[in-house]
Design brief:
The protein is 44% helix and 20% strand. The chain has five helices and six strands. Strands 1, 2, 3, 4, 5 and 6 form a six-stranded mixed β-sheet that branches. Helix 1 packs antiparallel against helix 2. The chain is globular.
Length: 160
């Protein structure tokens, strides 16, 4: 599995306009709906909002991972949102979240979600990658950063 299989210029949403956690989640769900992945966002939004209210999906270092399962989704579907100003996701380190990876899994296959998040975390833990993504002006530039990381990561794995 590659990050670029799910994160590309159409599924990278930048900049997120909303200045609230819930508004940004709705904005990202609307983007997936506009791409044809969802017919409606109301139930998913309410479910994700409830999850966020009970336990923040912020992981620290300016990153949040809101997620849900959906009967409308046949395969893992993600949208990467970039907030220039940062959003309060009640992060454990107190930082505002600038990188929001919203993922939707089919109800019968949550394992792919965990693998994808693990792979995304291995990339985003690199502070240079995080900075480059935040400084990028377009989804195309962010997609290129992800592709370059994958190529370099694969090269390093081949050398081992």
């Amino acid at each position: 599995m590659n990050l670029s299989d799910l994160l590309n210029k159409t599924t990278i949403y930048s900049p997120v306009i909303s200045n609230t956690r819930n508004g940004s989640i709705q904005e990202l769900l609307n983007h997936l709906q506009n791409l044809g992945h969802l017919s409606s966002t109301i139930k998913l939004y309410k479910y994700i909002e409830e999850l966020e209210n009970n336990h923040s999906t912020a992981a620290g270092k300016g990153i949040a991972y809101p997620h849900s399962t959906s009967i409308e989704i046949e395969d893992l579907t993600c949208v990467l949102g970039i907030s220039r100003s940062g959003l309060d996701f009640n992060s454990p380190d107190g930082q505002l979240c600038h990188i929001i990876l919203l993922s939707l899994s089919p109800e019968n296959n949550p394992a792919k979600h965990r693998k994808f998040i693990t792979l995304f975390r291995s990339m985003i833990e690199n502070s240079n990658i995080r900075t480059s993504i935040l400084e990028a002006s377009t989804p195309d530039e962010i997609s290129e950063i992800i592709n370059n990381w994958e190529e370099n990561d694969q090269l390093m794995n081949d050398l081992e």
